[in-house]
Fold each of these.
Amino acid sequence: MFMRFFTELREAKVPVTLKEYLMLMEALDKAVIDRNVDDFYYLSRAALIKDEKNLDKFDQVFGHVFKGLEKLDIMGTSDIPAEWLKKLSDQFLTDEEKAQIEAMGGFDKLMEALAERMKQQRDEDGDGDGKGKGKNGQGPTGDSPFGANGYHPEGVRVGQEKGRHGKAVKVWDKREYKNLDDSVELGTRNIKVALRRLRKWVRDGAAEELDMNATIRGTAEKGYLDINLRPERRNKISVLIFFDIGGSMDSHIKLCEELFSAAKTEFKNMEFYYFHNCLYESVWKDNRRRHTEKLSTWDVLHKFSNDYKIIFVGDATMSPYEITYPGGSVEHWNEEPGAVWMDRVAQLFPHMIWLNPTAERHWDYTPSIEVMKQLVGDRMYPLTLEGLDKAMRELSK
């Protein structure tokens, strides 16, 4: 059963290693948890999952592999599904045991034998207290597939009024982490997690932070309290973001706001500007005054050093001529095509990406997206957790 759990996690593209699986088995062997599904769920999740983006996949696989726990926990012996019995035999019985069952007359006869055995156990007490588990771990508190109050991963409840281990099913069925899945759009918290891949820690500025190690070492060497300070550790990465605003981007306002909020938190050295559809000769900082307070794109590009990471955020959905022809802009007359300006950015800044909030499966149906992908060197990524993760890796090169 546990090996099946491991293999299905691998099939679901959850990066689980054999070492982690063996660690989980060792934890079970040493009884670090009580024998209930609730504890096993949390233990296995802690042991096997390294990245929170895989938590939802884990919940789905866990629910699929152990779904019998919830269903069978509320069943009596009279309505055990034949498909489950067949599945149980395939997983846990040897060919010889299967042959013995067939010789008895099949599963119907087996269940009759079970009923007779349970009848006998009413008068038996394996522990001498009237509530024992009986012979071979069957009966109350036992670990046989048949019994009550005990625990078996694919157990059949007999003579128990209500289940005791089914509540954990509700934990993974809730799928509280489904918004962390690779393929879903992001929230502010999840964007922050993805953006953290783009970091370069340095210590600069005034020495205002206590250096504990140096203080201890200095005090031990000098024989008196020697307080040492050091500059605060900061993320040195500098980011310049261009947001497409208006038109078809109106449907992505919430997502762009979340991205902006997360980026402001993660990158202390960040600048941003707005444009519409494609980059032209001017950009702006305030959308309410976009027509009266424009800034020269040329000046902006030469204001920042080439170690800045450039991020374009837009759906790149427009007519191709808006990119490739003079006068292509739908808002003003542009003397130079947008493609020229995009090429200038690429020449000045070696680290540049484009984040597209449109689902990647729709990209092939929009010619302008293909044109823009070529202009940014095929470094266009969907604005999902997986896409943002790949984009940050690209900028980190």
Note: Residues 70-80, 125-141, 143-169 have pLDDT under 50 and may be disordered.
Amino acid sequence: MIRNARKLMVCAMLVVLAACTHAGDVAPQPATGKRIALTFDDAPRGPGAFLSEDERTSMLIANLSEAGVDQAAFFVNPGHIKSADDERRISAYVDAGHVLANHTATHPRLSQTDVEAYVADIDAAAEWLNAQDGNRPWFRYPYLDEGRADKAKRDAIRDALAERDLVNGYVTIDASDWFYEGAATTAKAEGKAIDLDAFRDLYVEAHVEAAEFYDQLARQVIGRSPAHVMLLHETDIAALWIGDLIDALRARGWTIISADEAFTDPFGAYAKSFDTPSAQGTLTEMVAWEAGAPAPRWYRGNDTKLAQEWFDRRVLGQEPAKND
């Protein structure tokens, strides 16, 4: 009975969320209704596969500007700031019109960290961020790990965020860009030839495919396209090819919006209350799971085994190993 009541409540909530599109509670949408904000996790990152830290920051700022993106959001780990140069690079994002938000100080996994230590890590990040221009009251869980199967831990952090006037800086679209950066770093260290044109095409195609998948899933579950939030990381490959990705998204009818706009969408209310067997992943997946949508509720490229096969074949020119 409790489970059935919960499902009825979820369905009612989804109806309300869908109705908000027609109630004037969100900004008017373009004809396709596909809107997306760009967010970058883990700033500041160390050296990547292709660029120095300064080159990466300068190129990312320049390519976002050239593409006409006025505001992206950078989710910061202040505990990883090791020098004045790290601070200068983060300030450069703000000077260019972008905004900052909390990603904990040191990037722990909630499912592997006790609540007290995790909250202390949030507070340590907030102490640094609250002194910065461009700070926003958004918190993003490292690894998108909201406690996994530990619902008591999940709820404890929800309460801690509410006490601090922080809201969940959720994502709705994820294509595991972090994996490709790591695969390139490994390949380069092993002296393998990397086809950069093929790598660019794979990066762009994976993210556009993920955007289309999660948008269709959202439409099936709530009856409309929410303002989406794409998960990216402050990587070399983002700096190199963010302009190509933006062009490809626009070619498929997407409008790039600010994170400020995206996080006002009524869809975000669900981030405070979803109840699934395991709390980790995109908000789109969580909403679909609770509503009873069948698997797969996640983009196929988030399977890193498959992503490795794509990378090996397309970027390194290798055929995947055959299973004996």
Note: The first strand starts at residue 35 and ends at 43.
Amino acid sequence: MTPGRRGTVDFGRRLWIFGVKDRVDGRIDIRTVAVCAALLLVTAVIAVVAIGTGDYYVPPNEVLAAVFGDASRITEIIVMEWRFPRVVLAFLFGGALGVSGAVFQSLTRNPLGSPDIIGFATGAYTGALVVILTLGGGYYQTGAGALVGGLATAAAVYLLAYKRGVQGFRLIIVGIAVSAMLASINTWLVVEADLDDAIAAAIWGAGSLNGLGWAQVWPALAVSAVIAPCLAVLSRRLPMLEMGDDAARALGVRAEPTRLMLVFLGVALIALVTAAAGPISFVALAAPQLARRLTGTSGVAMVPAACMGALLLVVSDVVAQRAFAPTQLPVGVVTVSVGGAYFVWLLAREGRMQ
């Protein structure tokens, strides 16, 4: 393979082009790489500061020393056992939400096509609630319930929206209606539950990283390691699907099977987050579009969306922990507060474009 050569194509965008002799095998957008690197760097800096703040202050140099195993025992306990797992989960879950949002916004070809809006996240919450309140399930049982609930909701929305194919706007409208119905079911489940179970479900339903640790990190890493390669392969077909099913088929893409696989993987990411932390809203809605504006690309991309989602959730969790210290808010309260304003702006913008 020849070394990468830099070129200016695609309306002036600077790319690294890789290939053998005169054949192009891959392109890397330099601006996208720079934006992703900057987002990860800012996230890392905020994470180090967040780990060090609290009732027991740890300077940034000691935080890094504890991460690399060169700190005092008490510092290692505070950093590695108490605070570091929470930051890792915020990073993983934010990335998962960002990627899921990118998948569904690309499939629907609409910035409103987020799993929060079209009901898939609500369906995952319903499945998890059923397991928690009726079966008293643990982490893995809750995760299975969230996955089944999300997939059942996706199937219902998909079938109701199907009419000689699936159009993005119809999918969004049907998803909003299904989400409203499921929200009422969720409220009924909580109201009818025992008081202790209802309180626990209500707290969990706000979306919180409080009390999570390494026991949740390892399953999240394992699931992410399985889903990420699958999405990496399928992501190359997303731009073709955005051109329409006929164009995708002409380019050799099996439209419906590819779309169903992408829906399954996107719902699996939502279920991963919901099982551990409860429903965390609006990160999946905002992250892909914010990343798109920074990278200047024509469509949403998964890697920038993941980096932006990780940054948003890490920052939101810091605010949730420190804004009203010593009281810790659920991170979902912060994301809903900020994301609600973004949602209103997005609706107004979409309305002006009609």
Note: Residues 6-11 have pLDDT under 50 and may be disordered.
Amino acid sequence: MQAWQVHEIGEPSEAMRLAEVERPTPGEGQVLLKVRAANINFPDALMCRGQYQVRPPLPFTPGVEICGETEDGRRVIANPVLPYGGMAEYAVADAAALLPAPESLDDAEVAALHVGYQTGWFALHRRAHLEAGETLLVHAAAGGVGSAAVQLGKAAGATVIGVVGGADKAVVARELGCDVVIDRRTQDVIAAVKEATGGRGADVIYDPVGGDAYTQSTKVVAFEGRIVVVGFASGTIPSPALNHALVKNYSILGLHWGLYATKNPKLILDCHEQLTELAARGVVKPLVSERVPLSGGAAAVQRLADGVTTGRVVVLPSLDAAQTASTEHGVAV
């Protein structure tokens, strides 16, 4: 089978190599899945760079989230067991952790439903207890995890303010349903949030960025507001001044969603049931901006790492076969 492998740490476009390898052999309690679609996540880029908390042995195949197909033809959502990640034609996953794929979504959307939406749901509901009528501020609102948080915030009845970087991303954020969109490249984020909230600030702030975004959050969080830290896409990990949290009476909450798989896996199942229902109603629908063939995987991970993508970029191994067949028949694709 074909699979992307990382043999040495570095930038994704340089570290990842497409190779012909043997299909992985499932261990006890594991299953072999045909990869129908693999969603690219920021941790894939961080693992290539050696900067993620999980460091699989070299060589490894990136890809932590897939829509897979079982031997009996069922579509499932899975988190592949590294080093046999999802950016390949086949991957290995724990049988007990497989989730049924919502029928209302196609393969690419299914692959993008799990990590980002589970992270958003746990952050907004489990950690921050977002209530209808509150104001939610989402940093990187047009990105993968940000777009999920926007949709989940609207589904919860919140007023959603989205912060983005660039005019194109501002258009995407508006289409996602943001009530207010702030372009950090041309606007003063702090002033714009205060204006939009009448000086009160945001009740819940969803921060997958860190760095300057976190600093801005502390300036615009409302009384008894909650800042949920879910990642550091900026590359800068903040050092919060706890006296500031005390003086302004706000909470700083951390979320490491992956811990629930071992600490309380039933919550993941409960969340998936709710996400499936929301998807069936059309309330949430992953924003898949690009569907790329397996051969374009490294370039796609690099674009995500460089921060130039919107929504989700999903790898579809079947597109390679389709392109080959079309080329053989003299049809350009």
Note: Residues 293 and 318 are 7 Å apart (CA to CA).
